[in-house]
């Protein structure tokens, strides 16, 4: 009678070998469905911002004889009251919106990382001063400041708008990073790095920042969403140059010429959909990052490895065989 290895181990009082731990999932960021969908849509918008003015069939400022014409084969999104092609305006307007959003996101994220992580790790007067600086910028409103700057300068470019939004939008991200850094600086691996004599900046860049990558990415996406909406709002209320096309400028002219009252839905619907889809893509990126950072969101809807579908009015309960 053959005796298996497991029986011999059980007879000897030894525990059976535990199964090998599952390999760490690679490319977890891209494998998330929400994140992948957001990246694809955002990549399309970036290509549209780069090649949109080149692909536009008409000059967005060129006037024509077809006034307030609905969509046709010649004008896919119809025309304005001056015969301007709305499809060309939408393509050309993508560059300004994406440029302002990314510029403001980069500026705000860099400042948030430098000030937030430094104030959280440095337990001295310098860290307290940086924290106080964050509190000051936290209450500075971005939109009124841009309006004041626009009234002073002879012309307001997208670069100026992006820089002002970025310089006034970093404080909230800095506060979040400071709180995360305060919780990380007492960890064992940080103490081990200090014991080995590593410098302060090496600990920040190689020990703390890798553990804050997801939080930084989430803050960047949130800043881009805010910057895009701010740029469109400023163009809609007429603060930016009305000859510099973006989606807010299209809505500005549609509102000023009573497009809704004239039934010219094609004048504002394409720009509105472009804004909504871009916001959806950025929101999907943010949701995907949250699921990667928060283990509770990753395991939501799963109990002991089994998927549970929620139903309205019922509480999911595992059966006796699954308990």
TrEMBL record:
Recorded GO MF terms: dipeptide transmembrane transporter activity
Top-level taxon of origin: Bacteria
PANTHER family: D,D-DIPEPTIDE TRANSPORT SYSTEM PERMEASE PROTEIN DDPC-RELATED, OLIGOPEPTIDE TRANSPORT SYSTEM PERMEASE PROTEIN APPC
Transmembrane segments: 36-55, 97-117, 129-153, 159-177, 212-237, 265-289
Entries under Gene3D superfamilies matching the protein: MetI-like (1.10.3720.10)
Database matches in Pfam families: BPD_transp_1 (PF00528), OppC_N (PF12911)
Similarity annotation: Belongs to the binding-protein-dependent transport system permease family.
Domain ABC transmembrane type-1: 98-286
Entry GO terms, CC: plasma membrane
Keywords from the UniProt entry: Cell membrane, Membrane, Transmembrane, Transmembrane helix, Transport
Protein's name in the database: Peptide/nickel transport system permease protein
InterPro entries assigned to the protein according to its UniProt record, in alphabetical order: BP-dependent_transpt_permease, MetI-like, MetI-like_sf, OppC_N
Compartment(s) of residence: Cell membrane
Membrane topology: Multi-pass membrane protein
